[in-house]
């Protein structure tokens, strides 16, 4: 296997910070070396310096995409952080349904801001569908909701759009009755039924960019991505998220994440179902 020198690591470290906002500390050389090893072979490079040159020369548009796909950590699963799903069903969803019924809200808009392979946003589509069905709500339908899911990695977005999951992936966090109701088995893949899959618009989006053209949201998931960012980018993401939340919109971050700088924009709501964030009066 070709080794990554300290100098080469520094080149990739800077490149990844610039392109993705991901901060790799000096202990992560092994990660870059192992994750780029296949790309090195596929692009017939004899060293990481050669691969870096290819990136810089823009001679192959695919290389940049493949580096980003390889470096990003895409770990995700169904109904991650169980408490947050309880909060959604017990607190957020009843409020939004009331707003639709009372015509205070035209469309409930949700954004999964680091969507990975789709489990987060599809878990929400399933949650809402189940809630409406189980509570026999007919005055509000899933058509009253709009789902946007974005990620910097085009590879994960392709998987998410297809909605095909292998037998191990489908098991991670998804109960058997929901699997049977929302997916069909095709060969060895569990395929999300079209009526649910087509609800979600998946788009490439870099969280370093401006959020303003995305419109306003009732709920933003920005979970398990901020941990990879520099503090400056993290604070920028908080500021930009505050700009795209509706006045009583809600932000969810990962259950294990704590960022004191959020306090500048958000009020922390600590409930028995975990924590969610709403805009401070001064940020509305
Ligand atoms: C660990 S996954 C989290 C998935 C999901 N939110 C969850 O909590 O299960 C992090 C995702 O963030 C994406 N990501 C990393 N840097 C990004 C950036 N600058 N802009 C948008 N997405 C990014 C990665 O591609 C990856 O799919």
Quick overview:
The chain is of the alpha/beta class and 284 residues long. Helix content is 44%, strand content 18%.
Would you write up a description of this structure?
There is one protein chain. The protein has eleven helices and ten strands. It is of the alpha/beta class and 284 residues long. The protein has a seven-stranded mixed β-sheet with strand order 6-2-1-7-8-10-9. A three-stranded antiparallel β-sheet has the order 3-5-4. α2 (29-42) packs antiparallel against α4 (61-71). The protein is globular and about 65 Å long. The mean pLDDT is 96. S-adenosylmethionine (SAM) binds next to loops.
Structural class: alpha/beta
Can you count the beta strands? 10
Name of the CATH architecture of the largest domain = 3-Layer(aba) Sandwich
What is the number of domains? 2
Mean pLDDT: 96
Radius of gyration: 20 Å
At the third CATH level, what is the topology name of the largest domain?
Rossmann fold
Instruction: Please summarize the sheet with the most strands.
Output: 7 strands, mixed
> What's the shape?
globular
Bound molecules: S-adenosylmethionine
CATH superfamily name of the largest domain? Vaccinia Virus protein VP39
Stretches where pLDDT is under 50 for at least 5 consecutive residues are none
First-to-last CA distance? 54 Å
The strand order across the widest sheet is 6-2-1-7-8-10-9
């Amino acid at each position: 296997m070709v080794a990554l020198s300290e100098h080469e690591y520094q080149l990739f470290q800077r490149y990844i910070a610039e392109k993705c906002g991901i901060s790799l500390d000096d202990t992560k050389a092994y990660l870059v070396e192992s994750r780029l090893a296949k790309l090195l072979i596929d692009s017939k490079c004899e060293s990481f310096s050669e691969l870096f040159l290819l990136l810089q020369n823009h001679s192959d548009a695919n290389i940049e995409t493949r580096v980003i796909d390889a470096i990003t950590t895409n770990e995700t699963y169904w109904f991650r952080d169980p408490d947050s799903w309880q909060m959604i069903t017990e607190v957020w969803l009843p409020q939004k349904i009331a707003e639709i019924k009372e015509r205070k809200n035209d469309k409930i808009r949700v954004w999964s801001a680091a969507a990975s392979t789709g489990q987060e946003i599809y878990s929400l589509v399933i949650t809402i569908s189940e809630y409406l069905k189980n509570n026999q709500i007919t005055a509000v339908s899933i058509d009253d909701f709009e789902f946007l899911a974005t990620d910097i990695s085009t590879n994960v977005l392709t998987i998410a759009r297809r909605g095909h999951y292998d037998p191990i992936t489908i098991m991670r966090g998804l109960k058997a009755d929901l699997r049977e109701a929302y997916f069909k088995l095709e060969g060895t893949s569990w395929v999300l039924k079209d009526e649910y899959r087509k609800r979600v618009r998946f788009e490439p989006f870099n969280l370093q960019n401006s959020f303003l053209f995305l419109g306003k949201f009732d709920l933003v998931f920005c979970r398990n991505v901020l941990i990879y960012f520099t503090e400056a980018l993290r604070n920028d993401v908080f500021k930009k998220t505050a700009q795209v939340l509706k006045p009583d919109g809600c932000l969810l971050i990962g259950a294990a994440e704590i960022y004191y700088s959020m306090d500048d924009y958000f009020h922390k709501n600590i409930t028995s179902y975990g924590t969610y964030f709403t805009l401070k009066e001064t940020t509305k």
